[in-house]
Write the structure tokens for this entry.
Amino acid sequence: MLENFEIDLKAIEMDGKSFSYSLEDSFFTDLEAQDITGGHLDAQVYVKKNAASYELYLHVDGNITIPCDRCLDDMIQPVNADSVLKVKFGPSYLDEGDDLIIVPEDEGKINVAWFLYEMIVLSIPIHHTHKDVECNAEMMKILMEHSDQNFNDEDSAVANDNKVDPRWSDLKNLLNNN
Ligand SMILES: [Zn+2]
């Protein structure tokens, strides 16, 4: 499935070419995405050919499913992101993270799946939560109780910081049962 995201650069004519993809849950499963559990997005890649390089204009638009910061239940996060990559041919593959990718000249191909995924991950706001009323009420109650107790037990918690607090084990069990 991820081989569908491979673009043959040598087949690009001077007037460039556009590619469209649908990113569904399987896209994130295939990439073994850690935090994104699913999604439904449209992606476009426009490849522009220059004299000695290519420019890839990437665009994604849609929704992903990620855990809420506050209650840890799944939430829907809208995504709308753009990115530009410069690609050149060279002796071997090189991605130094500065948006210039070197692709082996004898292969002449680039797979854009990972770049689309990276774009989506970078677009997620640092704080992402449900609207207040949509958070998992049961979980919020437990988290609230824990934060109160932790506040009151601050001194003893410092003294016992090598022991695992049994209340956190309870919470972990609860999460695992979800
Ligand atoms: Zn929530």
